[in-house]
Structure prediction request, 918 residues.
Amino acid sequence: MNHSMLGGICEYAVKEAEKSGATEAEAYAMTNLESEVLIENNDIKQAKAHTIAGLGIRVFVNRRLGFSYANTLTEESIKRSVIRAMKVASVCPEDKFNVLPISPNKVIQRPKLFDNSAESFTVTECTNLASLMLKAAKSIDNRVSVDSGNFTNSFMNHSIYNSNGICHSEKITSFFWSILGMAIDGEDVSSFDIQTDGCHMLADVNVSTSAESLAKNTLKSLGAKKINSFNGDMILSPSAVSELLLETIIHSINSDSVQKKASKFQEKIGKIVSSNLLTIEDDPTDSRSLAAASFDREGIPHCRTKIIDSGVLKSFLYNTYTAAKDQVESTGNAAGGPSTPPVVSSTNLVIKPGSSDLGTLVSEINRGIVLNRFSGNVNPISGEFSGVVKGGHYILNGEITFPVREVMIAGNVFDALKNITGISRQRKFFSDSVLPHIRIENIAFIGQ
Amino acid sequence: MNGGLSIENLRTLIRKYPEDYYLEARFQSRVLNEVTFSNGELEKISTIENSGVSVRSLVEGCWGFSSVYNTSNDKLENCVDTAISTAKALSTIKKDKVRGLKTPHRITRGVFEPDVKGRLQDIGIDTKINTTKEAEREARSHSKYIKSAYSSYLEILDHKIIVNSDGAEFETFDSKPEFTITCIANSGGDSITASEGRGVTGGWNDLFQFYDHLEYARISSERAIKLLEAKHVLGEKSTVILDPGMVGLISHEAIGHMVEADFVLSGSIVKDKLDSMVASEKITLVDSGRSPYSGGAAGSLAVDDEGVIAGDTVLIENGKLKSFLHNRETAFLFDTEPTGNARAFEYTDEPIIRMRNTFIKPGNDKFEDIIKETKYGYLVKGPRNGQADANGEFMFGAQELHLIEGGEIKGLKRGATISGNAFEVLKSVDMVGNDFSYGIGTGYCGKFQVAKVDGGGPHLRCTATVGSLG
Prediction:
């Protein structure tokens, strides 16, 4: 199925809904060709290939919502789906904020999201790359054990059409891989490490770097020792930033959480919410991010949104519904697939790089721990966290000394954001974020 | 709605390939409807129709898998070819090849349907929306302390047609509705969450067999209000009496996962424990595709996606570990019978080893006697989420605790975590109730893909660590 055909199917669905009496209607459809190879227990496990499609139709009948989804894109199936959506709308309560976006500014087609050569990429090539990644990890040191991993490629088409004149389509290719494992030296088993990466262009695929990082991180955490409890500084690796801080930030800047009074950032726009070292924006326009796309789930052009500027909260993220409630413009953060009505979500959360090297961040610490990963619970509403340091290394007098084990930390994400004392220049790209190393002071480490 | 496909179509589709290829074609059509209300507003509504065909192949010792939504003839043939080529792509690279598949005693044929009272297809979407809306309103109407409530109705209706190279040819129909209501009570800066609900295999009347939607709302809100006045417990190792839901949660999370044969192969702590005592001799633990003792358990299925009849699998019998949970591949490796646990959630998922209804069989003790004979301890009710580690250590949340002193239930305490090592806790069991119910049917089990499961049992008395949720 090609590009314009999918847009045509969306248009057909919207016209059907209007014929059936919908005041407003929107169709969002997607097709996806996906190949995946799975790694398990130091071996290739399984290969899969899927051809997936789906169309979600959203109707408003006098501000009453109806929604239906079908994954067969025949006229008959779409007609049935429209009838179901209309039936739902006839019995749902009215909500004055139920509106569709009107035809907005021009969508700028983002470059470098589609690679022609990826269209003909086969499961054999996925297998070869998964195998290459596995071999790369094992060849560095035979103590490295790969527990699981995958290599996936997808060729996705998505289209949106609504009764207010929005009509966009785009093709996106992506490659995604992950590798999870540990180092085993006799009785000594290191902490787990996981590396994930991805890109849109075949030329940017680089599985060896992920394998090397896994090997490096797991090998250096062999021989971990217990330590006594102390108060000091911590440096979070980009993965640890993701595990410890990201969920709470994403939750708190979501207009839906704010409107439900479940965000600590409620009524904090224009106020200081973190150290002035921290600047964050949501950026779906950067083609290096797997989340990059030209428009959101409602067809609003994607754009950069400044969220925190030098510690000051600037904006929440909105879709059309939550924006109508707050009487502001959508920030283009309508999210979700075709099978559910649009929700609100960040796309690619980017923390601005700092001015220090990781080495400098370490050298300025008297006593502390650098975390590779954090494993525990974080309550995104209150920000309370508690959990275990994984792949941690003890820092004494400005130098990394030895790996540690069984060290716990507990605290509050919102306090931690205020206690940031350093951000690294180097950053890591994740599928939903770009994150540096972050140094935070005044952490209680609970050891033996 | 089956895209015009029949057993005959799928049989023809896989027949023309070499005989030493194992092929399994599955058509699955799903209808999923969901309604959620929160604080008087419609939070979510969606109706979903999802259908397609997947083909799994075992060729040259490697598994291949492919799925397609379009069920025209050429697309289906293409799907089989892809399933075969994905398997072949691995054959020169994969080290540990699949050695074979155990063929079940009986080749499965026929049509399987659950008992349903009140077909979900016959209940209008307006009834489902109103029920959810009314329950949410009812939950908030009881007390000014209930500041927010959340109610959710979800139903999954499946139709599958499965044909494989070993001659299995069958159709299954499934119907699994669930209803949950959650209340948040606030007073000062203090906040308590309580929820109640049910998930079943069956129809509308089965779902509301014991309580109607308003009653669930009342139970949930009353629990939240009472808990708001209750105090926290102190952390201690103590005698605890677990309610059937907690027993179900431990059976599933802490024991069940450990005995899944794929997990056993990757080094589960029970791998060398068959025929050893792993629990008190009062414990008989079963995973079943049926719903014995009490009908309509949410994890029920008649036959699994590899065509194996899903009966009772006794995992622990009078304290002794008797069996693992197998698919046909692991049954071949362990030289035993497949247990009917190979399940796939969506048509795009391949069957993997999953539990069904996991429970402990009832014993002889009356609930009143269990309480009467407990000098000091806690009655632990209402399972929440929890975690179990690969070594059997678990930590589960409970919604409410009741202090027991001198053989009497004294007072309500706030929810707490119950932790311990599953096998040690099961060894400490000294009283097993003669009652029975299922209690985790609103939950889903995640393992690469989700599955609808259930679990339960009688009340059990044992020793575990009670820790404050803080």
The longest strand of chain B covers residues 41-59. Chain B has a mean pLDDT of 94.
